[in-house]
Amino acid sequence: MNCNVFVKIALCYKVMDIKQEKELVGWAQKDPQAFGVLYEQNYALIFGYVLKRVADLQTAEDITSETFLKALDKIGQFRWQNIPFSAWLYRIAGNEIANYFRRNGHYAVPLEAIRQPESLLGASSEIIDAEEELKRHEEFLSLQGMIRQLPSKYQEVIALRFFEEKTTSEIADILGKREGTVRSLLSRGLEKLRLEMG
């Protein structure tokens, strides 16, 4: 089967099994058009993960783009290990997030930066809804600010476990660590977070 036919077939599937994904990765190593299918299938996952880590839309878009550019550039070096391709993308994204924080330092998004749309200022029920949403957002930013104070090894496992709802096994695959190490990192990271929260 030639690559174009395979790409068209792959586009019909929202979710591929591991065997189909392995075949698509093999094609992507030969033809960038096949990488486009991997991009389409994984973009939302990686973007959501990055956005939850950096809490800034433009930064998340930039880091996600850089993640996929690096993945495309290095796809020839990728070695199949019977884990989802997304695990490799999460690892690249995690490295890009760490680089971003190293370059820019840890900071929390100031609450003043969150503006209420003027259309929400009309009816009182809409104002209450907006205030509740703002409070949830404020709590998220506060928690994220505390997570950012942790060493990056703890930030990564906490984000993957609780923001991305990955299992210990999936996190181990993404980070290339043993499950026991991941459990230990989670435990220590959560303990540090509890101390930070008082």
Notes on the protein architecture:
This protein is mainly α. It has helices at residues 3-12, 18-28, 32-54, 57-74, 85-104, 124-148, 152-163, 168-175, 179-197. The chain is built from nine helices and no strands. Helix 2 packs across helix 3, helix 3 (32-54) packs antiparallel against helix 4 and helix 8 crosses helix 9 (179-197). 24% of the residues are buried. Mean pLDDT is 79; it is low at 108-124.
Brief summary:
The protein is mostly helical and 198 residues long. The protein is built from 9 helices and no strands.
Which radius of gyration do the C-alpha atoms yield?
19 Å
Oligomeric form of this entry?
single chain
Q: What is the succession of H and E elements? A: HHHHHHHHH
Structural class: mainly alpha
Beta-strand percentage? Answer: under 5%
Tell me the major beta sheet.
none
Shape: globular
User: How many β-strand stretches?
Assistant: 0
Low-confidence stretches: 108-124
Q: What gap, in angstroms, lies between the N and C termini? A: 60 Å
Mean pLDDT across the residues is 79
Helix content estimate: over 70%
> Please, how many helices?
9
Describe how the helices and strands are arranged:
Elements: H1 3-12, H2 18-28, H3 32-54, H4 57-74, H5 85-104, H6 124-148, H7 152-163, H8 168-175, H9 179-197
Helix pairs in contact: 2-3, 3-4, 3-5, 4-5, 5-8, 7-9, 8-9
